[in-house]
Automatic annotation (TrEMBL):
<protein>
    <submittedName>
        <fullName>DUF4974 domain-containing protein</fullName>
    </submittedName>
</protein>
<dbReference type="Pfam" id="PF16344">
    <property type="entry name" value="FecR_C"/>
</dbReference>
<keyword id="KW-1133">Transmembrane helix</keyword>
<dbReference type="GO" id="GO:0016989">
    <property type="term" value="F:sigma factor antagonist activity"/>
</dbReference>
<keyword id="KW-0472">Membrane</keyword>
<dbReference type="InterPro" id="IPR012373">
    <property type="entry name" value="Ferrdict_sens_TM"/>
</dbReference>
<dbReference type="InterPro" id="IPR032508">
    <property type="entry name" value="FecR_C"/>
</dbReference>
<dbReference type="Pfam" id="PF04773">
    <property type="entry name" value="FecR"/>
</dbReference>
<keyword id="KW-0812">Transmembrane</keyword>
<feature type="domain" description="FecR protein">
    <location>
        <begin position="124"/>
        <end position="214"/>
    </location>
</feature>
<feature type="domain" description="Protein FecR C-terminal">
    <location>
        <begin position="266"/>
        <end position="333"/>
    </location>
</feature>
<dbReference type="InterPro" id="IPR006860">
    <property type="entry name" value="FecR"/>
</dbReference>
<feature type="transmembrane region" description="Helical">
    <location>
        <begin position="78"/>
        <end position="99"/>
    </location>
</feature>
Amino acid sequence: MKGKALPADLLKRYLTNTCTEAERRVVDEWYLRLDREQEAAPFSIDEHALLQRIRADIAHTLPPREEAPVVPLNRRRWLYLSGIAASLLLLLGVGYLAWNRPATDSSSAATSGTPDWTVHTNTTKKIERYLFPDQSVVWLQPGARLSHPAAFAPAPHREVRFAGEGFFEVVRDTLHPFIIYSGALKTQVLGTSFNVRAYENDSSYHVSVLTGSVAVSAPASPTHDEEVLVLKTNEQATYQNATRSLTLETAAAKPEIKQAWRPASLVFNDTPLSEAAAQLQKAFQIHIELANPALNTCRLTVDFNKQRLPEILNMINTLLGSTYELEGDTIRIFGDGCSD
């Protein structure tokens, strides 16, 4: 991906705030990736003037008609914008907006008795990225639901109520612990990454730690006092709803704890999609299917540097014009395929 420019019509939708969430994340990741590859010193820019120049440049690169140009699926090369100067202008402008545009992941709604809370449910069949007020992130599985205060401060805790499955990457703040309530189960962290699986109708809940440490507690029951487990990297706690008991397992017993959400670096060089899917299966311990055999004709030339599975899937879908759905432990990729 190094040195490549995104299609002009995608950047136009991004700047006019008419792109989808998946497209917005693709543009944000594109800039951040390029930004990490450079070591330029900080600089100041005139946001208004730069934005006007970006829009003017995009207008010149697009066809006269209103509709964005149609890109055939078999096109294996990136579309370049006109000239090196235009590319640099887009890079600087999109980067500035990516860092300064307000977060739009959440939708506000009142919870019972708490009108200042935000609630959100992933109603898609994809893994969805959600941004908290403190810039912590959770990757929500389909059907996952959460609620939290519209702003964490000035409360002493960053409190979240959660049901479903999600992978959390919590910004460290030793003065304001991040607490997740899933039914009777309480998960408390200062700053780390971990997965919570707590579907309301399941008999047991699971908390799996990828990095750092997490404190998991279960309430007292008629047979025992409150239990607290401190989990470290590659450990998992299982909470039984019926008995309110906690048990500890390690990555040796649950290898998926280690692999499912660990970032991976992969390089595809004119690689058939079926072969790329096989590499993703091995890297992330998840089953991937191509819903249409014609997708086997698609080839990928792209490199991923320490990226998580949903980020990789979103980029592949953008390149191929495909989409995916998550059903249980299986990812199905849908699309028309690619011509020779």
